[in-house]
Amino acid sequence: PKMRQKLSPRARALALFSIRPRSCCEIKTKLLQLGEVNVEAILNEFTKAGLLDDTRFTRWFVASRMSSRP
After folding, report:
1. Among residues 48, 41, 50, 3, which one has the least CA distance to residue 22?
2. Which distant-in-sequence residues (6+ apart) come within 8 Å of 14 by Cβ?
3. At 70, is the secondary structure helix, strand, or coil?
4. Using one digit for the tens of pLDDT, what is the confidence trace for 8-33?
5. Which of 14, 18, 44, 70 has the most other CB atoms within 10 Å of its CB?
6. What pTM, to 2 d.p., does this model score?
7. At what angle do helices 39-48 and 9-16 cross, to 10 degrees?
C-alpha cells in the first residue's frame, strides 16, 4: 500500500481553495488549527498570488446565497 504523505498546514490550507473561495478569516483559522506558526506570512503569500481576496469571497458568498435561497 502507498504511504500517504502528511501535508503541511500551508498545503492543506492551499487545497481549500480548490473547493470554493475562502475568506481571510477562514484560512487564518484553519492555519492556526493546524498548528502553523507563520500564519501572517502565508496569508500575505496567498493574497499576493490572488488566491485570498475577501471582496471576491463576499461577492461569491452573496451570489451563492441568492441563487440557493431566492
Report:
1. 50
2. 46, 51
3. coil
4. 999 999 999 999 999 999 999 999 99
5. 14
6. 0.82
7. 40
Contact between 28 and 39 (Cβ < 8 Å): yes
DSSP string computed for 39-64: HHHHHHHHHHTT---HHHHHHHHHHH
- CA 33 to CA 44: how far, in whole Å? 18
| Helix, strand, coil shares, percent, the chain, to 5 | 60, 0, 40
Residue 45 grid cell: 503569500
| Residue 13 and residue 39 in contact, taking contact as beta carbons nearer than 8 Å | no
